[in-house]
Design a protein that fits this description.
The protein has 113 residues and is α+β, with helices and mostly antiparallel strands. It is built from four helices and four strands, in the order ββαααββα. The protein is elongated, with a radius of gyration of 17 Å.
């Protein structure tokens, strides 16, 4: 079955797509920006740049980060971060449901060739 990849262009210039949402999900899972970046095979700097871009787009932080030290650091999603992930995944599911028969028809055309 073919898949559908979704990117949402937000006003005025923000974008959110599967990569940024996966980064947020991995931060939620690992409790760490650096661990999330490693899991996605990206640099910490690139992960941080993506987070800053999302924070700018939404006007508020999507994560709450604590710096390291004696007890170590960590990161977690803010309520807004959780909301962004949930809404993106809901939109993604709705788009997939709406497109399923069309995607199958496209795949069937390949099989007929």
């Amino acid at each position: 079955m073919p898949s559908l990849s979704l990117r949402i262009n937000l006003d005025p210039e923000g974008r959110i797509g599967p990569g940024k949402v996966e980064l947020l999900e991995k931060i939620a899972s690992f409790g760490s920006i650096s661990a999330a970046a490693r899991a996605m095979q990206m640099s910490y700097k690139h992960a941080w740049d993506l987070l800053e871009e999302m924070n700018t787009t939404f006007g508020k932080p999507l994560i709450s980060a604590q710096t390291g030290g004696k007890h170590g650091g960590g990161a977690q999603l803010t309520a807004l971060g959780r909301c962004v992930v949930e809404r993106f995944r809901a939109i993604e599911r709705a788009a997939m449901n709406a497109a399923r028969s069309h995607l199958k028809a496209l795949q069937d055309e390949i099989a007929l060739s």
